[in-house]
Request: fold
Amino acid sequence: MRAIADAQPFAFRFDPADTALIVIDMQRDFIEEGGFGAALGNDVRPLQAIVPTVARLLATARAAGLPVIHTRECHRRDLSDCPPAKRERGTPALRIGDRGPMGRILIAGEPGAEIVPELAPAPGEIVLDKPGKGAFYATDLPDHLARLGTRSLILAGVTTEVCVQTTMREANDRGFECLLAEDATESYFPAFRAATLEMIRAQGAIVGWTATVDQIAAALARAEAAHG
Reply:
């Protein structure tokens, strides 16, 4: 077992042998200009700013031999898996399925739905397309985690209060120990990110723990050295 002593709200203990990294929705549609995030009127620059940190977390996890799972929020071309209530909500400049600068918004196979190049999945890594906010809904994630023998999850990605938090709560309900890499997740709204971090680790890690990428990397480096 390894420990991140400075994790919040207290030390996070995990076994790298049964830990996986989930990187959530680091897609062009959310991170780049011309995508869905920008169409909703958001400033995408805060999300762009964490790309190097997520890349460092990915490199660390790969070096330690952790399984890596990437998710993409996107829908079928006929929108049969996109409820009207989701598509019609609000007044965005472009709706899900509309054609934008990077193809149809949040549609599987379109350029905008792809993960940003800096974080491209490595050969053999799992990539899950999900129609909802949480990564467990209508996906094969439970089967993958069972096959891998996963007990603990490290999470990163966007946005903190929506898809990341939803996935973390789903995982918590299923008995996984969850750690959020707090500097490898971001929101269009700084206050929402801060509030989510507080909610996750409140009441004795009611949903899970948070730690920095440096803290996670140090723990994994110790594990790698011990294994070597």
